């Protein structure tokens, strides 16, 4: 079996996640008391980057399954995402001593609220996965995926607007690329692909 595609997939995946973290790390200034404020954005960067890989993997799933253990990839990376999306806001709140007013003053109310709403929508995936054994969640799983995807896209705008590493430079370009391709992947996954599937089923 040709191992080159598998190697390329793995390298691409790690690069997509580690590059934003590397840019963030190299831009940091370590002043006394700045540790949490320096690291909490890293969890957000990591979560979004992995979710971007998820969005692309939905498009290329048949091909990916030929070269990697796709289900294990989704399961393991989803666990990492869950840790990151819990750690990111929690560490942010801790770094501001749970003073919401100071948090709003530092980053602005509008995009913090977009992030909060996006987070709530995004977490529906993990809640739904836990409760998937119940008929309601099983029947509405596609809707849950759609809701969490909307949350993912809202997180993109949240990060682009207030992420200090995303205001300029090459990472901003990469981030916009992530956002645009994620949106296109979403349109394909929940629009074009579903349309083709329904059309095929209606003609069968």
From TrEMBL:
The protein here is known as Ferric oxidoreductase domain-containing protein
User: Which residues are listed as membrane-spanning?
Assistant: 7-23, 35-56, 77-96, 108-128, 140-161, 173-192
Q: Sorted alphabetically, which keywords does the UniProt record give?
A: Membrane, Transmembrane, Transmembrane helix
Q: Does the keyword Transmembrane helix apply?
A: yes
Presence of keyword Transmembrane helix: yes
């Amino acid at each position: 079996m040709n191992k080159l595609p598998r190697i390329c997939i793995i390298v691409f995946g790690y690069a997509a996640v580690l590059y934003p973290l590397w840019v963030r790390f190299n831009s940091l200034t370590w002043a006394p008391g700045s540790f949490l404020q320096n690291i909490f954005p890293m969890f957000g960067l990591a979560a979004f980057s992995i979710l971007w890989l998820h969005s692309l993997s939905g498009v290329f799933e048949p091909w990916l399954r030929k070269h990697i253990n796709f289900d294990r990839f989704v399961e393991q990376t989803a666990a990492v995402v869950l840790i990151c999306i819990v750690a990111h806001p929690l560490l942010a709140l801790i770094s501001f001593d749970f003073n919401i007013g100071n948090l709003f003053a530092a980053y602005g109310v509008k995009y913090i609220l977009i992030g909060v709403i996006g987070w709530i929508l995004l977490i529906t995936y993990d809640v739904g996965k836990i409760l998937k054994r119940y008929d309601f969640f099983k029947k509405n799983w596609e809707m849950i995926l759609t809701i969490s995807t909307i949350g993912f896209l809202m997180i993109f705008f949240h990060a682009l607007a207030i992420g200090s590493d995303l205001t300029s430079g090459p990472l901003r370009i990469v981030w916009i690329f992530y956002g645009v391709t994620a949106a296109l992947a979403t349109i394909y996954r929940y629009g074009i692909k579903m349309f083709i599937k329904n059309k095929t089923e209606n003609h069968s």
